[in-house]
Amino acid sequence: MDLSILWYLVPSVIMFVCGVYGFVTRKNLIAILISLELMLNSADLNFVVFNRFLFPGSMEGMVFTLFSIAIAAAETAIAIAIIINIYRAIGNTDVREINKLKH
Question: Which domains does the chain have, with CATH numbers?
Answer without folding.
Answer: 3-102 (1.10.287.3510)
